[in-house]
Amino acid sequence: MLTVTDAFALTQQHRLNLPTETVSLADAAGRVLREGVRADRDFPPFNRVAMDGIAIRFADYAAGQRTFRIEGTQLAGQPQQTLSEADTCLEIMTGAMLPIGADTIIRYEDVSIANSQATIAIEDVQLGQHIHPQATDRRADDELLSSGMRLGPSELAVAASVGQTTLTVTALPRVALISTGDELVDVSVTPLPYQIRRSNTYMLRTALATLGIAATLHHIIDDEAVLKDQLKTLLADNDVLILSGGVSAGKADFVPSVLAQLGVQKLFHKIEQRPGKPLWFGTTAAQDGNTLAGEPKTVFALPGNPVSTVLCAYRYVLPYLRTSLGLPLSPARYAQLATPVVFKPAITYFLPVHLTSEPDGRMLAHPLPGSGSADFANLLAADAFMELPAERSEFEAGEAFRVWPTRS
Ligand SMILES: Nc1nc2c(c(=O)[nH]1)N[C@H]1C(S)=C(S)[C@@H](COP(=O)(O)OP(=O)(O)OC[C@H]3O[C@@H](n4cnc5c(N)ncnc54)[C@H](O)[C@@H]3O)O[C@H]1N2
Ligand code: MOO
Ligand SMILES: [Mg+2]
Question: What cofactors are annotated for this protein (predicted)?
Fold first, then answer.
């Protein structure tokens, strides 16, 4: 059986090779940029006035002048004006170009205006104050956004400001989420005593939505022929299949054998971990390296117990999709155990934890062991899984371990 580290590495080695596509700026939120975006002008593009007030020549002020005749007004969005004579000023607004001849701004709060004259009421005026000089933030042709960035609010604001009406981004993978199991009924159905409503695919869809992936939902009954037939179609139509259930040792656990029959090559089945031991991962990539158009396709068959499904999603599937999209892995996060934990089997234990941020800067993980990998109501209080290493069985309060957040 594989360790967590080896299994993770295998998934990462078989990342998707997704093409790029061009999307409009309005549709680019959350997507992964695949081009560099440069400044078409300086930032700011002109000496930008930063306060509403008056624009003067500092030399006049330095020579003792305090009252200035108001020559006119320059609003934002108007062409640059000129301060024509000595001892005059222009009323000026935030966002306007600094007038030719002016070099200092006095706020309205610091002047009194009467009879078309402005009198400065303060004595600590500095040359160049309240001016945001051209090119102080970025210069024309500087690379502002680079390939591999995720497009969030700040990135899209910058893209808009340089006139980028479209952006080249990684195409989203087509992902199908497939629940399997005869005991599972639709959410809208009142289950019979031996049935339950399916929930795993809703969890998976919500988790994938954090990467901007809109996956489709499917359900397949525990019938080998039906499973084979439907998985064949889903494989043809998608880049990634994510199944839940049917991968363990049961009489109706047909998923691994059916995937093999469909030519999906198993890369691993079972990991030394709890929960999520029976995770199955495979690819249609040919061993000779020759891939058909639209290939390879990837299949994650997650164990059906809901807590196992969640753990496998956050520990393996989401990082896989992240890096396939061209994003770096999320930075590692750590927390300290709030109370001691004992876990005997020599396998990695993913402990559900509630995280608290303490006034002294520590992140504390409060264990929520729950009643096992079917107890998904326990996850309502959890913020993360803490990864407790396989080679240890006793973990002390205050010891720090890696955590895998389950909330974004
Ligand atoms: N003899 C053994 N039995 C089991 C082993 C084992 O190693 N030997 N492994 C156990 C572990 S660990 C897990 S995890 C489960 C995995 O089971 P499967 O992946 O085969 O999943 P199913 O048998 O189909 O279902 C398990 C459990 O999960 C519920 N389930 C399934 N899908 C959903 C869904 N979409 N929404 C909600 N709940 C779901 C299902 O009803 C079952 O209760 O196997 C152990 N057994
Ligand atoms: O690994 Mo299973 O996921 O323990 O219940
Ligand atoms: Mg089973």
Answer: Mg(2+)
